[in-house]
Amino acid sequence: MKKKNDGLDDCDRCGEMILVENFVIDSEGNEVSEASKMTNLTGVRTETNLPNQSEVVLCQDLNGRFDGDGSAPVCDYTCHNDGHSGEVSQLSAIVSDGISGLNADPAAITKNAKRENDMTLEDMYNARYNFDEDDDDSDWEPSEKQTEVLKWFCVNCTMVNVEDVSNCEICGEHRESGILRHGFFASPYLPVEDVNQEELPVTENSEDSCKQSFLSSSTAVGFDERMLLHAEVVMKSHPHPERPDRLRAIAASLATAGIFPGKCYPIPAREITKEELQMVHSVENIEAVDISRRMLASYFTPDTYANEHSACAARLAAGLCADLASAIYSGRVKNGFALVRPPGHHAGVKQAMGFCLHNNAAIAASAAEAAGAKKVLIVDWDVHHGNGTQEIFERSKSVLYISLHRHEDGRFYPGTGAADEVGSMGAEGYCVNIPWNRGGVGDKDYIFAFEQVVLPIALDFNPDFTIISAGFDAARGDPLGCCDVTPAGYASMTQMLSALSGGKLLVILEGGYNLRSISSSATAVIKVLLGESHVIDIDNTVPSKSGLRSVLDVLKIQMNFWPTLETNFTKLHSKWGSYAFQDTRKQSKKRRRTGVPIWWRCGRKSLLYRILSKQLRAKSCCNYSCRC
């Protein structure tokens, strides 16, 4: 009898012998199949003759999926070779079972053998499982089980992390951090239940301290829990950066430190009236915000959300700022801090934008003027330019607006705030923009700009009342600002401005999206308002090259309106002019070669922040249209 090898004799991947089918031609000319299992004991692949296309063996995995498209066979099962035995695939068992009835009926065996010789392996599989041969499987595809990757969002910076890590890979905060309970005093590396209570500041008895504050405190704080109800209803790809936890973290820090409640005077909250809003906003803006009360969720711009509580929160924030300004200017309190949200400095005459609904700083300035102030200074150190505040006062000579912000030739949100934007309609010089041309700007550049530009102009202006639009998104670690200002830097700037207006100073919270950065910075500022002195070494403040160029550009423009700046410009240009404007091509080449700007300096976590910077550039900073 003649024998013919009609099957694969070893696995394509591991070389283990699987199944050999030998067809035997009997005396009547019929083919009879017999099967035998063989194992490659040596673990060495042997050469085999590939079968014809009609004889291709289709291998099946444990989920019953096929990987056969009429090309080459693929083995999806697992072969085990321990040197003594071999494990035969599920398909081998199927084929063996199909041959086990050879002794039943010789005629049937002959018929089946001929039929199987003409069938494809998919036909054989369908026949075994009684699939309808008439079914159209032309659109059939293997079903792949989707493996869901579990994620969690960092409470501190909102960045996404995978489930199996306990600390944020960007900022290092523990996923169960106690920052919302103890503020920045809580350890970033431990869960809330592991916080050592002995390491926290000792809080005074709140009842006794509040009685004392009503009698003798000179610092007022405006806060109302109803502002926490302003929140995005439907989360996008990750939590919105302007979220209620911003106020919770600051309030927790102040409470843990015994500052508020404790050492500060609380201002009762009220919703501002429509008449007060109309001093700075158009009816269009007011009605657009008010109508959001009737909607569960709405958006003024793709990044500026509202819910049914947002209009109330915005009016409470504006009302607190107005009342604080009146109380400070009238002398009922010396200074104050408005712990409010939503922020306001992007809100213009007509439009709400950039997370902002009503312009709190502009409303406070209007309230101060109504209380009798003739000249109001607004210093905006938020990392984004306060385009709304500038628009409201760009034709006014009674309000001087000074902003320090990232600009980068208009590429950084909102794109306004170039150095040559100085005001209009007879108020030229009453808008002073100090635009940074890169990220990573730190304390030295800010303090240098204060010394050379902000304070000389402010002293010349001699304001009756001073407002700080205090965004803390230029702080170290902020995911949107990507700058490097520390709590000490903010405290220094606050102390310098406290010398103006007889100390009549109102600080209004704007941006800031890293909870640890915003809470520690706000606490440092309030300590200065309470009278804690901060040593400022101005004489040894050396700016970066880019910061020096920005300051010189501003001085060159603004000295046309403030002659006192000409002396500063002449001195700086003669001392550092050649250094500031020398060729920087080598620096640009290094940036392109590394893919990370060389200015990125963030202390001991610099590698993490480099990773963050790449992620932000890849994702356009965040999934909100205004950030880039």
From TrEMBL:
Q: Which residues form a coiled coil?
A: none
What name does UniProt use for this protein?
histone deacetylase
Task: Give the source species.
Answer: Anisodus tanguticus
Provide the top EC class: hydrolase
Q: Which domain of life is it from?
A: Eukaryota
- Family named by the database record: Belongs to the histone deacetylase family. HD type 2 subfamily.
Does the keyword field hold Hydrolase? yes
Q: Which GO terms describe its biological process?
A: epigenetic regulation of gene expression; regulation of developmental process
Q: Which Gene3D superfamilies match?
A: Histone deacetylase domain (3.40.800.20), Zn-finger domain of Sec23/24 (2.30.30.380)
| One Gene Ontology term, aspect cellular component | cytoplasm
**Cell compartments where the protein resides:** Nucleus
What Gene Ontology molecular function terms does this protein carry?
histone deacetylase activity, hydrolytic mechanism; zinc ion binding
Keyword Transcription carried by entry: yes
Give the reaction(s) catalysed. N(6)-acetyl-L-lysyl-[histone] + H2O = L-lysyl-[histone] + acetate
Q: What does the record give as EC number?
A: 3.5.1.98
